[in-house]
Amino acid sequence: MKKIFSNQNVRYILFGTAGLFLGWLFFHSSPQKEEAHDHSAEEAKSEIWTCSMHPQIRMDKQGKCPICAMDLIPVSQGGGAESDATAIHFTKQAAQLANVMTSVVSTQQPVKEVRMYGKVEADERLIQSQVSFLSGRIEKLMVNFTGETIQKGQSLAIIYSPDLVTAQQELLEAAKTKGSQPEIYEAAKEKLRQWKLTEAQISSIESSGQVKANMEIIATSGGIVTARRVNNGDYISQGTVLYEVSDLSRVWVQFDAYESDLPFLKKGGKIEFSMQALPGSDYTGIIAFIDPFIDPVNRVAKVRVELGNPGTKLKPGMFATGIVKANLDEFKDKLVILRSAVLWTGKRSVVYVKQPGDEPIFHLREVELGPALGNSFVVTGGLADGEEIVTEGAFSVDAAAQLEGKPSMMNPAGGIVSAGHNHGDRPKDETHQMTSSHQMSEENTGEHAQIKVSGNCEMCKERIETAAKSVAGVTLAEWSAETKQLHVSFDKGKTNIDYIQKAIAKAGHDTEKYKAPDDVYKALPECCLYERFKY
């Protein structure tokens, strides 16, 4: 053995064999460590990063958004996501900070509130024309200005009439033979009566025995002079209108009703209204007439209310705001929810339903809506009595759903809309191409904008929103009379802000960029005539 180990070659062989054995032991355990390391890397890669401004972006590592270059944020998985992948989980603190409020859905007796705007007008049946029954020359006007109040029997003007002079002479001659020829005497008096001379005037002519060159024109009715048609010295013929007179003891209040509101209005229905010029004065009336024709320009029908006007407090031209509360018997015992609970996107209407329990967990639900009831809606399908829905903060809940890739208002299917990748391992040109595809995808999604639009009232609101929604690609349009701001959502691939503003201006309302045509603006109802500015 000593000889064997003393051989130098044998020692080299033994040392080499021992080294190989030790190397085998060392490298035999390393794959396990490497496998463990790769497993942790996979766990790290399972985390998804997104953009707070573009939630359709999904990346497998932290970086920049390929669209807006903002820092990506990790997608919150939420507690209990494994049990319900479509639910949106909030903590109680997060729900409170987002001002998320819920209410229980219940059945109600739907009452439709129809708001209308109108103005006071004179009763057409009490408008009269004060005419002259004689031809001649106006020597003097006793009523000289519009707005003057006259009484029946009051002297309006003094007229010289050659025909009247001849008729007086005939009366005086007939009066001499009235005992033998009473028929001629009565015929002479009747001629003067037909010219609207009073019995006192006729008796005065007969008793004086003299022909009067000038004669007074007496008012045949009382009221307010709304127009004066003649001046001193004018030559007039029989039947010439001297004054137009309106009796304001009774007036009309004419309201403008959109054609969409007409099904909720009926003759004999009760209406409550107030006058802008008389704050604190509330009136109640009965609908006496509904115009059977729609105005082709304004798309409204006139709804008339008749009422007495003691003291003539109501002046023609005053603006009025009326409300009709119509019971919707066909929707009796239907669910009613607040308008703020509903999110609209195109033809879809969705709400967020709270899962039973104390934790704020919400599910997206599509609903079918009936008529609007002012600040609420009738629900015809999609909800059950007793369910709890989000009534405030629905947009916050929807934003959280978009960030987590779950079903939302704009993405009902949920999931990843546009898959992300690790851009750091790609060539520069390939990364640029992928970024361009992301931008094209973004351009075809919904865009939001705020537009300043001039207007005054609810009629303006409906007209502006209707004009905006008439543009292809617009999915949402809401205008505020207080801020004069129109919030629109639209498909950028189908339209743009310019087209929307042009459509609104064409309907009669000035926008930030376009002015409504003068003829269209002047055709608007008086309550809609906003203050215009020079551009």
Describe this structure in words.
Strands 3, 5, 20, 21, 22, 23 and 24 form a seven-stranded antiparallel beta sheet that branches. The protein has a six-stranded antiparallel β-barrel with strand order 6-15-18-17-16-19. A four-stranded antiparallel beta sheet has the order 7-14-12-9, with no helix packed on it. Helix 4 runs antiparallel to helix 5 and helix 9 packs across helix 10. It has five domains: 44 residues; 63 residues, no CATH class; 89 residues, Elongation Factor Tu (Ef-tu), domain 3, CATH 2.40.30.170; 121 residues, RNA polymerase II/Efflux pump adaptor protein, barrel-sandwich hybrid domain (OB fold (Dihydrolipoamide Acetyltransferase, E2P), Beta Barrel); 83 residues, 2-Layer Sandwich (Alpha-Beta Plaits), CATH 3.30.70.100. Helices cover 26% and strands 30% of the residues. It starts with a helix and ends in a 13-residue tail after the last helix. The protein has 535 residues and is an alpha+beta fold.
Shape summary: elongated
| Named CATH topology of the largest domain | OB fold (Dihydrolipoamide Acetyltransferase, E2P)
CATH architecture level-2 label of the largest domain: Beta Barrel
Q: How many beta-strand segments?
A: 28
Which regions contain 5 or more consecutive residues with pLDDT less than 50? 29-45, 78-83, 416-445
Amount of beta strand: 25-35%
- Report the biggest beta sheet as strand number plus sense, adding barrel if it closes: 7 strands, antiparallel
Percentage of residues assigned to helices: 25-40%
Structural class: alpha+beta
